[in-house]
Each structure stands twice: as C-alpha cells, then as structure tokens.
Amino acid sequence: MAHADADAGDLPPPPAKKSPAEEEAEKRRKKLTPGSLMKGLIRSGGGDATPAEGDQVIVHCTTRTMDGIIVNSTRREHGGKGVPHRFVLGKSKMILGFAEGFPTMLKGEIAMFKMKPQIHYAEEDCPVTAPDGFPKDDELQFEIEMLDFFKAKIVADDLGVVKKIIDEGKGWETPREPYEVTARITARTGDGKELLPSKEEPYFFTIGKSEVPKGLEMGIGSMAREEKAIIYVSSAYLTNSSLMPQLEGLEEVRFEVELVQFVQVRDMLGDGRLIKRRVVDGKGEFPMDCPLHDSLLRVHYKGMLLDEPKSIFYDTRVDNHGEPLEFCSGEGLVPEGFEMCVRLMLPGEKSIVTCPPDFAYDKFPRLPANVPEGAHVQWEIELLGFEMPKVDWTGFTFQEIMDDAEKIKTTGNRLFKEGKFELAKAKYEKVLREYNHVHPQDDDEGKIFANSRSSLHLNVAACYQKMGEYRKSIDTCNKVLEANPVHVKALYRRGMSYMLLGDFDDAKKDFEKMIAVDKSSEPDATAGLNKLKQTIQETEKKARKQFKGLFDKKPGEISEVGAVEAEGNKTDDATGSGEAASTADRDADAKEAIPRADSELAFEEESPGLLARIWPSASRIFSSLGLNRCTIL
C-alpha cells in the first residue's frame, strides 16, 4: 500500500491549461509544412536575445515576388512612407509567417523569409486582410529588418498606444484626471522627422483638459514619478491639442517623455466643487499611510474666504498661539470637506483645499464669527501627524467595557442629532464590531449586553432610515427581531421603514403586532397607524391624478391611455417633489417609545399574483382605485 502511494506521488503534475491565445497559436502552427516557410540570413544581428511573447517588435518590411519585383515596402527608397511596422507578439494580428519568423531574429538582423501562399495572406481564416492588388495566391519573399524589440506596456487595448520604459520611476502612484503634470517631451514621426524639439524647460499641463494629444496623455497616465519612456501613439489617438495643434495625416508619432513631477489634484465630490491640491509631498505610500480610519490628527491650517482679495479668518499659527489643531476624525469636529481631504493626506504633506459652503461652514454647527453664510473657503492644511487609537478592552471589567461603549455611542448620538448620519452609523458599527469579542460571564451581564447590542442595531437602522436606505434599515431591524421577535421598538422602527419604502401591508402588520404583544405600546402603535393611513391617502390621491381616465375608456380607446398618463405626469411635476419631501419627513414626525414585549402574534401573508411580482406597487395603486382585478382587452 505504501509502495502504491509512493508511485502515485511520483506522477508528474497535470499540464497547465493553455490560454485561448496559446491554443490559437498552436492551431495555426499546425498549418506549417516542410518548405512552406524558409529563412535566409542577409545580415547578422547583435547579442543573443530574441523577441518573446509580449514584446513589441519594430521592423522594416519589403515584399517581393519570386522574380524580384517589389510588391510593397515600408522603406522610402522602395516607394514606402519610411514608417516601420510595429507588432506586439501574442497580441497583434499578423500573418503566420511573421508570427513564426520574428521570434527567430536578433536585434539589427536582416533576413529573407520565403513563404508559401498558405503561410501569408492566403491562409485559411487569416486574421489580416491583404492590401488591394496584393498577389496573395503567389509564393513571396519578405525582407525583414529587426530594428528593435522590447517588453511592451500596452496602454490602449487596441495597441494604438504602447509604451517602452527606458528608466523606471519612483513609487507606484501615477497621474490621472485632474492631476497637474510637469514633463519633458520630444516628438518625432514614425520616419524620424522632428515634430517637437527637445528643450530644457519642461512642459506643464493638467490631465483631462485635452492640453496634449489623447494618446500621450494616456501614456503619461501609466508613468511613475521620474520615469523615462518612449510612447508610440497611432493616428486614432493623435488628437489636436494646445501642445501640438496640427497632427492630421500622421500615421504614428513617437514621444520621448521624462515625467519630472506631478501634483496630486483630487475632485473629492466629482463635480469640481471640492478640490484638494497637494503642494508638498508627505512621507510614506499613498494611500496606505494616510489616516483613512478614525484617528487623532494634528494639523496646522490657514482658512481664507475666496473673495478679492482673500481674507484670512483663522490661522492656527497666529490665532492658536502657534499650537496645531488636534481633533479626532469621524466625530464631526471639523467641517466635512476639511476632514474628507485630511483623510487623504500623508504625514508632512501640505495641501490647498477649495471648498463650497455646504461642505464648509453652512452645515457646521460651530460657524466662525467672521465667516458669512454661503461663503466659499480655501484652507491651506499641513498634516503634522496622526495616531490611530484602537478600541482595546483587554483587561477591562464588563462594566468598564459597557462604560467605554456608552461613550462611543454618546458621540454617535451627538452626530445623529447634528444630521451626520453616516458618521453616527460608523460609531455604532464600531462598537458592534468590538462586541464580537465580548463574552458576558453570567445571566445579568448577558441581559445588559443583549440590550446594548439591540440598541446599537436600532440606532444603525435609524441612520439608514434617515439616509433613505429603507431596505437596509429593515434588514438591521431584523437582526434584533431574530433574537427577540417581540421587540417592540424594533417592530416600530421596521414598520416605519416599511411605510417609507411603500410596503404598507407589512407596515400595518408591524404596528398591529406591537399592540398585540404589549398593550403599553398602543399609543405609539396608534400614532404609527395614523401616519400610515395618512401616507396611504396621499398615495391614493396621487394615483387617482396619475391614472385619471384610465378605466373610463371604451374598447378601442386604450391607445389614448399613454397620453392621459403623460398629461397626469406633467400636471404632477410640481407636486412630486412635495410628495418626496413629505415622505422624507414622516420618520422625523413619528415619536418612539421602548414598550415591554410579552407575546408574539403570527400573521399570514397573501401570495402575490403575477402582476404583483412584475409590478410590486400595482396592487396598492389598483386597490386605491377600488379595482382588485383589472383586465385590459
């Protein structure tokens, strides 16, 4: 038995599965027959390296008949344009003779390949089309000069932009829109004609503003700081720009680029209103060494109003006795735009931030006295350092853990009252994560712990509700109800979320179940039912307007329904926003209590029909119109 196991262990591993490209190459290689592809050496190359898959090869090619008549050529002396061909082995479409011949050549080598028709353009299912008038059914000679080959960085999937790295850069970060770039650039056509001469002073441009040709911008967008590279750009990517306004008629341009520097510019909101511009690099790697998580931060900053001239309203070096500002992120202690940008800074970094009013001080409860409402501001921020405090309850008693958790929860409650629901939710979820490592020792501790966890889940549900994510609010309430199906506050909050989501039947069941399991919750449940009734009436009223005349049509008039509906939509444009606003305010108007829960009541659900599954709100709309079933012939 042991001998059999040893034999089994000595078996070679199964062969690796080939890629589709490898399978296709092997399939084409089977078309080679003795004498179909012959190579003759005209001039030896240098070195011993040959092109491999993934390399870009740059070649001159002259095609002749067996009588020596030139069919076509890349060389100017043979009637060509002087622009060599570029291929990426394993990626570019090419004739079979090239795919098999190029990997045998050295750099600088000139060779003559004699090919049967089935090895060039007469190949069955040939991936490239022969030029007009090309004698594809004849045996031909292809004179190839291997000018260069190198490992290619493919920038554009169609190989219209390919990069050759000359000197590796520093770090991994690359520029992207709307980064500001400083680079030395020269440009030549495919046949070597100079388009953009070399100069000592570098060029300056912004990514995304079409200040350089598209292909060049794409290539630079793949470069690291201080990298040197050659970027080959084909005609499809040679867009006109302020750098090179006239590029029509060029098949290819070769750019030599040295990326001197780039300034990280971030559009934090994606609409151009909150912009962070790094002016001094920090220490470390972005973003791993940034204070992405809640941390204790130390910053110096200068705040200015964006008026003419700019007026300084606060400077920590002047107004704070030279001391930096210290604050904990994630607690709403600074304006939202300020904190968003600081979280993406490295220690020692200096950035300039321009911020709109709604992310500066208009929604910040502690408005500086000298900042008017509606003011656009600019902050010059220097991140001195940060510490990432961790919740560590090692060695704590159960009561100390509960006290520390209550402090974090209290911070979340403050953020909730200030309308910072995302930050509040993060605080509650932080405690819930740490609760996974807490193990109560007796029944009394277990009861306190369970109540605290349920309270935190319901606070998270309230945050989701305020954020308009009603389905997530319902799912969070379900976590509490799974542990305690008669938790009255969870029923109430889930019922409110169902109502806001438009699931009126489920909302009604939750409110009625509250009364069934705990009579003391009847005032809150009744308030919820009254709110639900009001919401249903508003929905019915809107539905009647929207579908007015829909069911008054005689047979043959159903084609006019679309027009009636469109007219109804046009009429209700003004009321639609009001309806949405009233929906968003419903939860704020509802009062909550924490009644006791004693029993559980089961409710039977009606199976939805086909129309209800396709159009969930249809049943409520038709019911509001007094039509339980509707058939349109």
Automatic annotation (TrEMBL):
Q: Which reaction does it catalyse?
A: [protein]-peptidylproline (omega=180) = [protein]-peptidylproline (omega=0)
Q: Where is this region: Disordered?
A: 1-53, 563-589
Per UniProt, residues of the PPIase FKBP-type domain are 54-150, 178-263, 294-387
What EC number(s) would the UniProt record show? 5.2.1.8
Alphabetized, the UniProt keywords read:
Isomerase, Repeat, Rotamase, TPR repeat
**This protein's superkingdom?**
Eukaryota
* PROSITE patterns, alphabetized: FKBP_PPIASE, TPR
Q: Where are the TPR repeats?
A: 454-487, 488-521
Q: What class of enzyme is it?
A: isomerase
Supply one GO molecular-function term: peptidyl-prolyl cis-trans isomerase activity
Q: Return any one Pfam family short name.
A: FKBP_C
* PANTHER family given in the database record: PEPTIDYLPROLYL ISOMERASE
- Identify this protein by name: peptidylprolyl isomerase
> Which organism does this record belong to?
Oryza punctata (Red rice)
